[in-house]
Design brief:
40% of the residues lie in helices and 14% in strands. By secondary structure, the chain is of the alpha/beta class. Helix 1 crosses helix 7, helix 3 runs parallel beside helix 4 and helix 4 packs parallel to helix 5. The longest helix is centred in the middle third of the chain and has 29 residues. The chain binds NADP nicotinamide-adenine-dinucleotide phosphate and D-gluconic acid.
Length: 266
């Protein structure tokens, strides 16, 4: 039974995996037997810090690159380099993402566009770059990192919700268009995870009290807490492994039950 969850010999590219959710998923892939972990960030500083972090975690065979997922020429060049230097890309995780928390009517167009470009166009660019080789081999795994905002809205995150809602449908469309090549494209929809991206929502107030959003999210989560990035490890290994070969176009919410819960009565 365990073998179907093994990633033995597989090469996995996790975008934006210097830290946060991507780093946790890449570590899990390595522990599941992946032969090579490939990650990219938008700048050299975080890429180098990422390499140090993997080394400190005892993860070997890690390859870090600087590549903005919105730059299709750079992504195409990176994929060619990976194929030449490392080999086939068995698993792609479209993890790289940003958020800008600004009331929609105050948001500048270019701010809205940047979120859409990184969070939705980036996964399209990276997926389109790896799919031809997966088609040739008639095998591949693509995992998109969606969000609670693939299903729900909230104030100040209009661009992010639009992007993550679109990413949900991009997941289903890649499934529909490439399932015949034995390519499975699924998504993980994390709940509220303690990473740098959500750090502003957990900051202590000047009087030492909890951030109101921190209290709000704990009331919206049945377990009453933020989730840890490492809690995405099992779902990610499942969707990257042969164990999920018959799962396609699925959004696997790893949210501690948020989407099922009306919230704790104040
Ligand atoms: P994070 O801590 O901010 O990490 C984001 C990663 O993406 C960093 O490694 C960042 O590296 C990279 N990145 C950003 N823009 C990039 C670009 N243009 N090209 C390449 N890399 C880029 O975020 P996180 O919390 O780990 O979130 C990871 C993913 O999960 C995102 O898609 C996010 O929307 C999603 N998500 C997060 C949560 C949560 O609660 N944290 C919940 C649901 C979904 P550099 O900035 O150094 O380039
Ligand atoms: C926010 C948070 C969320 C999380 C995540 C929830 O501002 O509401 O950043 O968007 O990042 O996407 O699933």
């Amino acid at each position: 039974m365990n073998n179907i969850f093994s990633l033995e010999g597989r090469n996995a590219w996790v975008t934006g995996a210097a830290y946060g959710i991507g780093f946790a998923i890449a570590k899990a892939f390595a522990k599941a037997g992946a032969a090579n972990i490939i990650f990219n960030t938008s700048n050299e500083e975080s890429m180098l810090k990422g390499l140090e972090a993997y080394k400190a975690a005892g993860i070997e065979n890690v390859h870090g690159y600087v590549c903005d997922v919105t730059d299709e020429k750079a992504v195409a060049a990176l994929v060619r380099r990976i194929h030449a230097e490392i080999g086939q890309i068995d698993i792609l995780v479209n993890n790289a993402g940003i958020i800008k928390r600004i009331p929609m009517h105050e948001m500048k167009r270019e701010e809205f566009q940047r979120v859409i470009d990184v969070d939705l166009v980036g996964p399209y660019i990276c997926s389109a770059a790896v799919i031809p080789e997966m088609m040739e081999r008639r095998e591949g795994k693509i995992i998109n990192i969606c969000s609670m905002m693939s299903e729900l809205g909230r104030e100040t995150v209009s661009a992010y919700a639009a992007a993550k809602g679109g990413l949900k449908m991009l997941t289903r469309n890649i499934c529909s268009e490439y399932g015949g090549y034995n390519i499975q494209c699924n998504a993980i929809g994390p709940g509220y995870i303690a990473t740098p991206q959500t750090a502003p929502l957990r900051e202590r107030q000047s009087d030492g009290s909890r951030h109101p959003f921190d209290s709000f999210i704990c009331a919206k989560t049945p377990a009453g807490r933020w989730l840890d990035p490492d809690e995405l490890a099992g779902p990610a290994v499942f969707l990257a492994s042969k164990a999920s070969d018959a799962v396609n176009g699925h959004i696997l919410y790893v949210d501690g039950g948020i989407l099922a819960y009306i919230g704790k009565q104040p």
